[in-house]
Structures are given as C-alpha cells and as structure tokens.
Amino acid sequence: MLRAGDTGLWRVRNISNAGMMHAADVPVAIVERLEISLSENVGLAGDVVWAEKGRCGIAFAAEIDAAAILRSLAAEQRAEGYRALRLPVEAEAIITLGDGARAIDLVDISHTGAGFRCDVPVEPGIELGLLLPGGELGRQALVR
Description:
- By secondary structure, the protein is mostly beta strands.
- Helices cover 9% and strands 49% of the residues.
- The chain is built from 1 helix and 12 strands, in the order βββββββαβββββ.
C-alpha cells in the first residue's frame, strides 16, 4: 500500500469489482487516495470510503474484473521462482545460528520472508532464528 509517500503491508480482507476491504493498524482518512500493489505485476488505485476498528473500505477509481485479477494472482503464486511482494526497510535485527546471535541489517520484509545483510556467510538451507526490531516478534526461518 502506498499512501502519501508512505509504504506498508496491509492485509486484504475481501475484493469485488467495485472495491476492497483492508485490515491495517494505521489511521486512514475518508477520501484518502491509495495505490495498491497486489503483486509486482498487479496494481490498483482507489479512495477510502469508510474506516473503523482497524479496517477500511476502498472504492476503486475504475471497476475491475476481480475474478480475472484473482486468477492472475493465483497463477503468479504457482509460478516457478515466485516471491511475495517485499517492503523495503532499513532496520537492525538479530539472527540466531548454532554458534550464537548476530546483528544483521534487515533490508526487506514480506508476509512470508525477509532479506538481510550479515557480516558472516549464511548458506542456503541453514535454519536460523530471526528476531525483528523491538524484540517482541521472532520467527524460525530457512535461508533460501
């Protein structure tokens, strides 16, 4: 989601030909214009028409064929080499490996993965722990 120069990951709750509902933990304003990227190849635009309790409704600038878009997204996700849309970030995080913990530079993140720079080689296939900034959200991960 791109809004007023800010980019974030929002969860799509439903979609129709005329609009969609999103869940987001940020305040939105009625009539706010949003640019929505459902993948690297599928983008939409719309205006917020309602917002309450962490959800908002968006009316598209022009009607879409929701069924065709969903088919396209499903085909993308089944394709060889598919990678979920990533949000660029600049943050410090921590990985835990067999020999201890290391600070890393987190460079991007998605609902299914993250990219980082590290001062030691990390080989594909290695399992590691990833502790995100703030120290409250950790995940086990497999290096691809």
